[in-house]
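A quick aside before the break. I want you to see a complete sequence-to-structure record at least once, exactly as it would be stored in a machine-readable document. Don't worry about memorizing anything.
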Amino acid sequence: MSIIDVEQTRKPLRRDAQERRDRLIAAARHEFAARGMDASLERIARDADVAIGTLYRHFPTRMDLLLAALEPRLREFLDGSTQALEIDDPWEGFVYYVENLFRVQAGDRGFNDFLSRRFPGNADTERIHDEMCRQIEDVLTRAQESGQARPDITRADIVNLIWFNGRMLDATSTTAPNAWQRHLYLMLDAYRAERAHPIPEPPMTDEQLYDAMVRLNTVD
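That is the input. The structure line, written in tokens, reads:
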């Protein structure tokens, strides 16, 4: 994943500069998780006890800061997706993938926002999202080819789940933080091949899905 590679090869900073950068990432991680990816950069700088100009010297754009803050979540999610493909039973691998997706999504509003949107002007995020899409296709195709998942599910249907779950998390995070688990298992039953019934509406095309994810992006 590109952002991990960038962080690992970044030129070392002086100790004081590295400490400021670390404080900024910690503050951003907290703010983005609590308030989403549109969280106030001024508040992040204040919580890190640095000037806003210092924030921009380390992270010229909001997306630079967001990717640095989300790096552990992204690694956790993508590692879990790889593990899903290593499970022998294709349906169990699919269930593991979606459970991991929802679990990581539930703990971080910024990560939820990142999953839900596309950012066509940023090459790093496009590579990350493309990798996510490949993993969705892989776990889903295995389950379909084994005859366990209904054959008409598409990648767009999984992204639709991300959107639905995001809204549920917004509504229930403080009152019923585990409500997403019930919704997940209701949906998984609907995805089983033996439960399939004809659906009157075709799935979104890849182009429609991409355009919808771009429209959700409200970051300046």
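Two observations worth writing down. Residues 23 and 49 are 8 Å apart (CA to CA). The mean pLDDT is 88. We'll return to this after the break.
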